[in-house]
Amino acid sequence: MSPLHLLWILPLLLILPLFSRSVRRRLFARFYDRVTRRHEAFLRERKRSLLADVRGRVVEIGPGTGANFAYLPEDIEWIGLEPNPHMHRALRRRAEKHGIRAEFRMGSAESMDLPDDSVACVISTLVLCSVSDVPRALAEIRRVLEPGGRFVFLEHVAAPEGSAQRRTQQRIRPIWQWLGDGCCPNRETGRHIREAGFCEVEIEAFPVPATIAPRFLSPHIVGQARN
Predict the structure, then answer these.
(1) Which of 115, 153, 182, 204 is deepest in the core (most CB within 10 A)?
(2) How far apart are the C-alpha atoms of 6 and 10, rounded to whole Å?
């Protein structure tokens, strides 16, 4: 997110706490694509590489407005668990645009209405920052993945312990979590993934320039874990 973006976003952030959660979620969905445009462009090649080999029955948790459809093969069976109902219209439109056979559900990552060992891949991009219980969500991901199935992820995570950036994340968390539909900038998501019991875990950390997103939303991690 550039400084110019912040000029028009700041007034919105200041008034959002005055609204109910339902209204905030509606506004979050309405402005999501506009606010994240530069960030999505920055992540394009990493997402293309991460999602190129996705096959079979796929569950995406928190797909938002469907930015990942652009990188997914057309021959998959895609199930989206998106708890914000105001995202669903954009999701359907993008699924049709990209020829993805899609099923839309209101479920959450912590409680998936899916059988054990029933999907080949679970996708999470910039989602685990906002779930209410990360270990529980990861346990659900492992439960629904078939043996040998993959969990592929791209997330923003906590800065190193003791750093000025980490202290900024901790200070801003209460207001950002309120404004950002539950987003917590100081989550140690990589550690949670490593401790979740997957057979294999590959994680790469990378920074995001302040011209792309606020510094408290860096660093990011990208990788996969096999069940």
Answers:
(1) 153
(2) 6
pTM of the model: 0.87
Helix (H/G/I), strand (E/B), else coil: 108: strand
87 has pLDDT over 90: no
Contact call for residues 86 and 117 (beta carbons, < 8 A):
no
Q: How far apart are CA 140 and CA 134, in angstroms?
A: 10
**Exposed (0-12), middle (13-18) or buried (19+): which is 80, by Cβ within 10 Å?**
buried
pLDDT in tens, 146-204: 999 999 999 999 999 999 999 999 999 988 888 777 899 999 999 999 999 999 999 99
First to last CA, the chain: 35
Strands 77-81 and 57-61: parallel
Domains and CATH numbers, the chain: 3-226 (3.40.50.150)
- 71 neighbors 99 (Cβ within 8 angstroms): no
Whole-angstrom Cα distance, residue 194 to residue 203? 9
Burial class (CB in 10 A: 0-12, 13-18, 19+), 167: middle
